[in-house]
Amino acid sequence: MEDFNKLAETEATSIEKLTICEEHDPESNTINQPLLKSPPVLPVNPVAIVGAKVTHIESLDYEINENDLFKQDWRSRSEVEVLQYILSKWLLAFLVGLFTGITATLINFAVENIAGYKLLAVVKYIEQKRYLMGFIYMTGANFLLTMVAAVLCVCFAPTAAGPGIPEIKAYLNGVDTPNMFGATELIVKIIGSIGAVSAGLDLGKEGPLVHIGSCIASLLGQGGTDNYRFKWRWLRYFNNDRDRRDLITCGSSSGVCAAFRAPVGGVLFALEEVATWWRSALLWRTFFSTAVVVVVLRAFMDYCISGKCGLFGKGGLIMFDVSGVSVRYQVVDIIPVAVIGVIGGILGSLYNYLLHKVLQVYNVINNKGKLQKLLLSLSVSIFTSACLYGLPFLAKCRPCDPSTLNSSFPTAGRGGKFQQFNCPKGYYNDLATLLLTTNDDAVRNLFSINTSTEFTTFTLIIFFVLYYILGLITFGIAVPSGLFLPVILMGSAYGRLLGIIMGPYTRIDQGLYAVLGAASLMAGSMRMTVSLCVIFLELTNNLLLLPITMLVLLIAKTVGDCFNPSIYDIILELKGLPFLDANPEPWMRNIKVSELVEVKPAIVTLAGIERVGRIVELLKNTTHGGFPVVDEENGATELHGLVLRAHLILVLRKKWFLQEKRRSEEWEVREKFNAIDLAERGGKIEEEILTNDEMEMYVDLHPLTNTTPYTVVESMSVAKAMVLFRQVGLRHMLVLPKHQAARVSPVVGVLTRQDLRAHNILSAFPHLKNSHGNKKRH
Amino acid sequence: MEDFNKLAETEATSIEKLTICEEHDPESNTINQPLLKSPPVLPVNPVAIVGAKVTHIESLDYEINENDLFKQDWRSRSEVEVLQYILSKWLLAFLVGLFTGITATLINFAVENIAGYKLLAVVKYIEQKRYLMGFIYMTGANFLLTMVAAVLCVCFAPTAAGPGIPEIKAYLNGVDTPNMFGATELIVKIIGSIGAVSAGLDLGKEGPLVHIGSCIASLLGQGGTDNYRFKWRWLRYFNNDRDRRDLITCGSSSGVCAAFRAPVGGVLFALEEVATWWRSALLWRTFFSTAVVVVVLRAFMDYCISGKCGLFGKGGLIMFDVSGVSVRYQVVDIIPVAVIGVIGGILGSLYNYLLHKVLQVYNVINNKGKLQKLLLSLSVSIFTSACLYGLPFLAKCRPCDPSTLNSSFPTAGRGGKFQQFNCPKGYYNDLATLLLTTNDDAVRNLFSINTSTEFTTFTLIIFFVLYYILGLITFGIAVPSGLFLPVILMGSAYGRLLGIIMGPYTRIDQGLYAVLGAASLMAGSMRMTVSLCVIFLELTNNLLLLPITMLVLLIAKTVGDCFNPSIYDIILELKGLPFLDANPEPWMRNIKVSELVEVKPAIVTLAGIERVGRIVELLKNTTHGGFPVVDEENGATELHGLVLRAHLILVLRKKWFLQEKRRSEEWEVREKFNAIDLAERGGKIEEEILTNDEMEMYVDLHPLTNTTPYTVVESMSVAKAMVLFRQVGLRHMLVLPKHQAARVSPVVGVLTRQDLRAHNILSAFPHLKNSHGNKKRH
């Protein structure tokens, strides 16, 4: 251990930036810097947001801060105020559902109309055999739409690119990615999503809708944007991380609900995939939000059904209704179902693996500058347009089924719209039917029932390969992009292919194979089970599918887990978000917290009544989010608690200084600060200007100190400490010495999220990795 | 505070029994003793299990016990053993699903056949106009069946009475009700449930199935019953409370799944209602169990469909399939839906209130002796039989609908079986149709679609009132009884009644009103939302109902919550199970843990190397589950950790004593103990016999002590301490002094579950209640 200490000392400068610092500039550590060469101290992961620019990452604080001021605030709340608090929670949940529902409808409305009229024009050119004009029109329109989305994302809100789900997941785990839930992000995400989806790119609006829901929730919770805040007194109760966390959970489940019209699925998605902490009460409120979303969607559909909304119709909502189909299967059918699951799991984890590689390459490109980012997006758009338009020429014309001629030819019918494309009358081009349409309609076509001869094997193979490639290259570009739809597209093509191959041995319809294939690929890539199951249930509207869907999901997830983590975990890792897993790794039992503390730089503490100069110096020279406060009386030291950086900055800003070294009276503090001030965050030490006289004055930190931080004893194993840290949702965990008498300081260290991450510990203690049992215990 | 201390001293003897004692004889405190007259110390709640006999209640321990021995055990686990552990977890989940599925099918098979042949015989007597014989036959059969169930419950397994869900909920919260998950309980529950349900009592098999699933899980986890254990090496990994908790969660969700054939609903039920701690990994494994259950049920149904199982058919499984119905409703229909919800909530909470009163009366009767218990059950059986047989004579005969004559008359047809009863041919008795049938069929009749004229208002009123009364008087008797079905019966009758009243103003079918009514009453009584919603979804097989079901559930739950807690919480309270709520009450912020510690008797600690005599004395005179171990060196004291009572008893049993006062060597300990020994529980100090010589010897407690117990500082608020206690799942929480130097002891107290319960704190500090904000924050 001494070696570590020595090393730590020699690298003192870099340590200051790399250890518990939670606020630090990520742009300085791009992914190609050799940060991971097993540094001697616990490293902060490189932060390389895919196509995004962030300033710093901060941990959230779910601990009840028990300093004198907060306590007073709570005690002074009357019965009426508690009631206001509860009421406003419900009101906010209602508003989150309402606005998310309205926004989702608007997006659907815009996408269906823009993409619809675009495709109608293209089809017209083709009918007139003006193929080149058609190509130019389509490529141009897609180019422009992509440009709108990409320019917005690149220039105004880099964090709006991508799905946003990993960041939300990280937020709910306690990691605050900045500029994630602002008004700019919301607007860019909405417009960008409309542009990108209408442009026919291989991406969905599902992920962005989750982000949109969370943005709405966050903005509502703080009463508007940072600049124009609606000052409602009741909102002040929501000025803490715990309540904001709950609201954003509501928002994300509303988003999923709006994307799939799956209220229960939305709740479960938030529960299974997104949320880290969960309570029964939250389940209920989330459910309320999604119920509101469903009612809003329903109301708009009632309104639009009569054709008042252009090409909207029922579009974009009930995506793949197969409720009319009676599914017949027996216990024997478990075998083909298992095959779907196994192959789906393999394909899904392969997709994860490849996407990881592609994103690493994209990171390098995106980091080169805004122009490169933009060019990357636009080239993907052109490539996509070319493939979508060009490939159908490879397919042969097929005669329309005479028995269903009236209903299925050419643009309307069972399950979707058939495309005549370059074929004579009475014939259709099956590849064009899948490619020259919106993604939603493509899925609907693939899921259609009793259409076993409509799509040839050749077509499906081309479609699958094309969308596997598009799915890989599209995700990382700088536009809002969801992962759900690309995976569903690949999966349904794969399922249908498998259905054709297994046709002679099974009674399950090929449309259902497509559904199961989509489910298996999603489980293989995203590794969700219950929520996916319910989402598929609510999408397909067919309960008889439930048992086999469950089996497919379970098998695909199990197979996928053998190879690599879920796609969201991969993205979290890529973005360097310090996500804390639910379970400690087995080897964490073999290392004590004292060992972690030893490899960190020496702890810095503040005195109960501290000189202003020293506080400023500390704040400037360290990046710690909190400092232990130690009282010294008659030579004996005693831990008073932990004071947060934000509160220290607040003291400096308000210049609440004492001339002499004395304890302050309660009224003095209360005059200067209230609990709302304390809940504010994000002040910067650089902004505070103090005179030399002031630097020599004193601050009484006692009333601002959280006097009851959670502590652990230094002999505790990291596994056990992590249970506490993660379950209670801490930001700082104080480590106390085992032998009080022998130590000078009553506190030996402070552990944060970064210190407890498996990856970081392994970097500092590589021998743990090889000891044994590196697998997760489930 | 001093007054409290003085009072505490004067009542020293009773205090010893009443404070942190977690193991104590509940039969000595029946509910009619005046225990709740605000005693000066934190009281243990009176334990009065409804119709059950328990010996003592013990808290479970989810903390990672870090003593030298356990640590060694973990370190010595190889990669293979970790793999074994994971594999066996999945294998157990599979077996739990398999056995629960088989048991559920057996119960359904038995119930459908016994009740079916019984009713056929009764109908035959009625057809022959031998009404008295019919009555005697029916009452006699029901009497005998009830007797079997009641005798078994009273004599062999008192804990098998009732649904068992509250005890499971308490177990997963960390309270171990003894004799709950044994083989006797399992067998009695299975046979008793068959008897009670076949006897036509107003109770369901759903609750018991949850208990059965949990019993199966528990027995599998420990490798068989206490007497005949299957010694499989892999099972030793499951010898801790955490893994057992996970298994029982699996078991309970499998039970719900088997009861309703609702796999997702089962998982959600466990998540929302039963489980206290939840992890993503658990979600997945639970889901796997329920998937297995569904496959098993499906396989049996495939086998039985051709009539090989007597009257079984599809009976008892898909209870109310309305998948064929297309539901039409618009936004306007929210109004009648809201009415259903509001009234359902009121009726549900009224039911909770009345049931609470009835159970209190029953408690007094049940506590008088086994004979009284038995008589109570049998009188309820006779009363039920009389009502079911007698009341139909009040109803008028109604002509069968000629258009549906072929299909609906008399015993088979749309949605259920019509009864001719005392009517001439071509007529049916609508009340008999509902009463002279199994409960499942009655529900099916009420849920039937397009039968708006089949049941008169008069019939429905009688039915509703009868089942409201029966539901109240039946639940508390000494037979296995579920709450789901009685509530569904009441609720569906209420819903249909409301449907008739609202008929002119709505387009929703009366059968759907019945479904919604049932949902509203369940939400009003049991206060579940998402899980009920999914269960109803899976029951009715109709996704279009989802949005209105959600609204009804939300409204009914909200209304119900205004009046009283959920029925399970009421039963938990009645049984005196120290259930710990998820959220601390607001007023808990105004009290410090030091205040709680002060009203408790002085803390007893052990020295690191302790005399055997003192250990024996302590164990005999206190009932604490754990003791702090304090080392003293050169006058300074230091907390070494916490040693469990079970481990002390183990030391005494193994007679691991030292002649002189010295620290033991590591090999000495390891020779004598292994981790499996330490995981054992339930030894009694009275059983250990020691000689006087031995009493003078010493024990080195260091290697057996958990050196890293979770601790809090005495100035922490109770609210904050409770977050730690509840989130991490503690049994003992050590309270450290704020000012180390000023105190003699390094630990000022130990808090347990009982100390942190809101009710107990309020008894000791009545002024907190009136301060403000006594409501829960959601």
Automatic annotation (TrEMBL), chains A, B:
Gene3D superfamilies for this protein: CBS-domain, Clc chloride channel
Signal peptide per UniProt: none
Alphabetic keyword roster: CBS domain, Chloride, Chloride channel, Ion channel, Ion transport, Membrane, Repeat, Transmembrane, Transmembrane helix, Transport, Voltage-gated channel
Intracellular or extracellular location(s): Membrane
Domain CBS, chain residue ranges per copy: 602-653, 708-761
GO molecular function: chloride channel activity
InterPro entries with a match to the protein in the record: CBS_dom (IPR000644), CBS_dom_sf (IPR046342), Cl-channel/antiporter (IPR051280), Cl-channel_core (IPR014743), Cl_channel_pln (IPR002251), ClC (IPR001807)
Transmembrane segments: 90-111, 131-157, 282-301, 334-354, 374-395, 455-477, 483-505, 543-560
Coiled coil stretches, renumbered: none
Keyword Heme: no
One term under GO cellular component: chloride channel complex
Superkingdom of origin organism: Eukaryota
Membrane topology field: Multi-pass membrane protein
Pfam family, one: Voltage_CLC
PANTHER family for the chain: CHLORIDE CHANNEL PROTEIN CLC FAMILY MEMBER, CHLORIDE CHANNEL PROTEIN CLC-A
Family: Belongs to the chloride channel (TC 2.A.49) family.
Name the UniProt record assigns to this protein: CBS domain-containing protein
Lineage, uppermost ranks: Eukaryota, Viridiplantae, Streptophyta, Embryophyta, Tracheophyta
